[in-house]
């Protein structure tokens, strides 16, 4: 059972929803602004989502008041994310750092954590992440939504919906970890925010016309990806030993590139479903190995690279696909140029411009400990994906497993799932 | 040049006149004492004794005279009103997590009143010109969209504000809860059963024979009404102390409709509260900060216009809110005049009273067109605490009393940092003056408060020991930033 991506309404099994606002404790100086880079602007139609579920033993005694107070400590470090977008006379969006705050959503669920986690399609976690797009009125649209869901047993679901224009997934995880430390009451030595250049180091300054970004019809002030097809999401867990290794000749179990293999397998499955034209170009998004956080911790520094093959994918072996992924070309420079061109008045899609694979598996999501305990489950996805689809691979609770969230047009999803069953990725 | 020199000359003339009139009796007495002293010195001790013996004092005469003197002095001291000392006070500092920046307030306003853009526009214009800053606070229930003003939330706010202020007061003064003799709570718009005073008695396990009072519905001037009640009670009960809690609970009173005149309080009223310890014990005289000199209450309620100008009522949709009439400033001006007329003779030096009297007589007898003489209250007081009801109130009072910017600084800065905290704002202002290190021994403070009804109450305190800085209090973490420049209009 997949779940259609909806624009934030209908929280399904979550009821008694209450909205309030949290922000930064210290006032920001009047007139402070934050300028998005070209790369930021290219990502503006996308929203990153993460849902963390904590067991009742960990979370039973945590009050809403305490959670809100801890958020204030987080936002003191990144007060600019509590601002609102506005446009310059040229139309270029920028953030007015006016301390408007972020939306804090409280909800209740009639299931226990155990019952919730027993559902095989983990995309039910979408209900734990309240989401609204930016717009149609930029001045009153928060950039971040936080949802706190109380399960019947006392467990807690913490969902974060984060506009990609302010930072990448790695920034989101950094901010969330900061929050969990504040909740736990640890003294945090936050580095002073650096006002230096927020740009990334790119080894490929000559790439023009990046293929991983696609221009879309103008969306005006409502930042929603204009898709003709309705998208659906499906999420499952993989075991590396049982489901991944058999596809790859073993050269030493520790050195297999797990993400590339998963990407390769799924690429093949999708290619088989989409007979003509096959996706011969895909986008790979990974963490920048040269990026040293935490200075300028909240920004878009993920490596966006493009892989092109000239052979039919459906018939290729996984090894060939993995090898070609090794030759991916970093296109950030080109995207930066395009995103910033025309003063940010053009609208683009990166996730789903081509079939996109996001590698979050290097991040230890289960390090987000509250009161010393890791979450029981973590879910990651992106909202506003283009029609070519998205696959997000991230760490699961057990280190030899991975979580995979797939977003594809509704019409393709069932057939792709059939292919997954054939490959042994999911149980028949 | 001649303008400057003539104004300087005028200043010296004024000074000379003031010294002459205010110290008239002293000036008369000096030549008299001088004459007597010279006579005595001239006569020499032998002659003095001769004069005394010739008066033929008998033992009976001496005894009767001494008894008379002792009797008169006893009657005098017994009938003198007990001095009421303000030992110390503490103001509630809301947590930063309750902060309401302008943009957040406006965003909530736009989301809640999305069908009434004119009302949103109105609120924005009020906020821009309000004189409030970005650090004023609203209670947690009002941060919800839409606000969630349940009775439980209102009680929580009351507990948060009152208990924090009281605990701070206990710490500052070393007061033990069981030693409280009189407890007066004033909170205008939230009056649950059991009362807030009962809530305090329950929390701190106060004595069963405590004299507790709960004043509600009396508006922003209720703080001084509480002081008046405390003063009267302290005349009747010797060797007692009184704790006054002044606060306004915002949670249940957030207006949910869209009538413009009733949206105004939403923009200005903010969380706040104060706890004050008064005493009539002689032993507290050495540690008290102030003593109460005068307290004057004037009520304009007999006049219909004054009575109806601040009215709590339902709008067309049944939402309860406070309707402020357009004549508010005029009525406030008249209430102030009535109050000044009563307090003037009590506090003004003789020079000012004489000038005022002559101007009054002159206008009545000679020429009604003469400008009325406004007494210079700056000669009677060193500090002014004007209730921070709104920027317009402070501007109006500054103009009519001819006060300088520094005199109204405490009021303006309190409005900026804490908003309109209703009856407790006077205490935040006093705390500001202390935090700035301006309060010296024998300084006199005038607290003026306006309230629905329409009332104007004022209290005069005299500082009896110099307050050392740095003080602990609501201003301790931000006083270095003050005073700030508050622009006429803040662009949102």
TrEMBL record, chain A:
Q: Where is the signal peptide?
A: none
InterPro entries annotated for this entry?
Answer: CAT-like_dom_sf (IPR023213), Plant_Fungal_Acyltransferase (IPR050317)
What is the superkingdom listed in this entry's lineage?
Answer: Eukaryota
Q: Where is this region: Disordered?
A: 1-20, 189-211
Tell me which family the UniProt entry assigns to this protein: Belongs to the plant acyltransferase family.
Q: What is this protein called?
A: Protein ECERIFERUM 26-like
UniProtKB/TrEMBL annotation, chain B:
The top EC class, named as a word, is transferase
Pfam families per the UniProt record, alphabetical: ACP_syn_III_C (PF08541), FAE1_CUT1_RppA (PF08392)
The record lists the membrane-crossing segments as: 20-41, 53-78
Beta-ketoacyl-[acyl-carrier-protein] synthase III C-terminal domain ranges (all copies): 382-462
Q: In which pathway does it act?
A: Lipid metabolism; fatty acid biosynthesis
The catalytic activity of this protein is classed by the Enzyme Commission as 2.3.1.-
Give the keywords, sorted.
Acyltransferase, Membrane, Transferase, Transmembrane, Transmembrane helix
User: Locate the FAE domain: which residues?
Assistant: 76-364
Q: Residue span of the signal peptide, if any?
A: none
* Catalytic activity annotation: a very-long-chain acyl-CoA + malonyl-CoA + H(+) = a very-long-chain 3-oxoacyl-CoA + CO2 + CoA
InterPro entries registered for this protein in UniProt:
3-ktacl-CoA_syn, ACP_syn_III_C, FAE1_typ3_polyketide_synth, Thiolase-like
Say which family it is in.
Belongs to the thiolase-like superfamily. Chalcone/stilbene synthases family.
Q: Please report the name of this protein according to its UniProt entry.
A: 3-ketoacyl-CoA synthase
